[in-house]
Design a protein that fits this description.
This protein has 254 residues and is an alpha/beta fold. It contains 7 helices and 11 strands. It has 2 domains: 86 residues, Nucleotidyltransferase, domain 5 (2-Layer Sandwich), CATH 3.30.420.40; 151 residues, 2-Layer Sandwich (Nucleotidyltransferase, domain 5).
C-alpha cells in the first residue's frame, strides 16, 4: 500500500491507499519539536487503531511546505517503515506542464493539487486550498499549470486581528446571521467570513476573465466546506485533493 503525507504549516494530512482506493485517512498536528521516534510511535498507534500495520506500506510519497521538519520525517520513515520516502520536488514526473517562471518556487502541495484537480475535473480548472495560506491555482485544458494567487488563510487572518490589535478579542470563526453586526464579536465574524467570500468570488471572476472561458472551481482544505456553503463560484469540495494528487504523482513515477 502507498502512504501519502501532505506536511502543512498547521497539520500533516495523511492517507493510506490500496491502489486507487483510500483505505485510511489521518490528520495530525505539525509539531516541529517532535523527534523521529515521537512521530514514528504516533503513526504506529494510528495504524494499529485503524487495523493496519506499518509493514503493509511499500511506498511513501511526501509533499512538504515545512523544510525544517523534512529531515525528522525522513528518519521516521527509515526507522519505522524501513522505506525511503519520495518527495515532490522539481523534475519529478507529474503529467502537467508547469509554466511558472521559476518552478522551484512552486510549493509541492500546489503541484499535487494541480495534478489531482486536472485528473478529476478536467481543464480548465481552478483549485482553491483553504489552508494556513489560501492558495489559488489554475490549470488549462492542455494540462498546463498557469499560476495563481496566494493570500493569508482565513484562520491566520482571524488570529492576526486578535494578536495585532490592543482591544479586539480572539474569536471563533463562524458564519454570522447578518452582515451588519451589532456587537464587536459579530462585526469580526461578519468582516472575516463575508470578506473572504467576497475575496474568493472576486479572484475567481478575475481568473475566469483572464482565461477567457468558464473554468470549474474545486475547493479543498479545512475551511472549504464553510466557504462553499456561501460562495456561489465553488463547484466542488474535495477534502482529499492534495493526497489524491500525491497518489497520482507516485504512479507516474513508478
Amino acid at each position: 500500500m502507498l502512504f501519502t503525507m501532505d506536511i502543512g504549516n498547521t497539520n500533516i494530512k495523511t492517507a493510506l491507499f490500496d491502489g486507487k482506493q483510500m483505505v485510511k485517512y489521518w490528520r495530525v498536528s505539525t509539531n516541529k519539536i517532535y523527534t523521529s521516534d515521537e512521530f514514528g510511535i504516533l503513526f504506529e498507534h494510528l495504524f494499529t487503531h485503524g487495523g493496519v500495520s506499518l509493514s503493509d506500506v511499500d511506498g511513501i510519497i511526501i509533499s512538504s511546505v515545512v523544510p525544517t521538519i523534512n529531515f525528522t520525517i525522513e528518519h521516521m520513515c527509515s526507522n519505522y517503515f524501513h522505506l525511503t520516502p519520495m518527495y515532490v520536488v522539481p523534475g519529478i514526473r507529474t503529467g502537467i506542464n508547469i509554466r511558472y517562471e521559476n518552478p522551484r518556487e512552486l510549493g509541492s502541495d500546489r503541484i499535487a493539487n494541480a495534478v489531482a484537480a486536472f485528473d478529476e475535473y478536467g481543464g480548465p480548472v481552478i483549485y482553491i486550498d483553504f489552508g494556513t495560506a489560501t492558495t489559488f491555482g489554475v490549470v488549462d485544458e492542455n494540462a498546463s499549470f498557469l499560476g495563481g494567487a496566494i493570500c493569508p488563510g482565513i484562520k491566520l487572518a482571524s488570529e492576526a486581528l486578535g494578536t495585532g490589535t490592543a482591544k479586539l478579542p480572539r474569536f471563533e470563526l463562524q458564519k454570522p446571521e447578518r452582515v451588519i453586526g451589532r456587537t464587536t464579536l459579530a462585526n469580526l465574524q461578519s468582516g472575516m467570513f463575508y470578506g473572504y467570500v467576497g475575496l474568493v468570488t472576486h479572484l475567481v471572476k478575475k481568473i475566469r476573465q483572464e482565461l477567457g472561458e468558464p473554468a470549474k472551481v474545486v475547493a479543498t482544505g479545512g475551511m472549504a466546506q464553510m466557504m462553499a456553503e456561501e460562495s456561489k463560484v465553488i463547484d466542488h469540495v474535495d477534502g482529499l485533493l492534495t493526497l489524491k494528487g500525491l497518489r497520482l504523482i507516485w504512479e507516474r513515477n513508478h
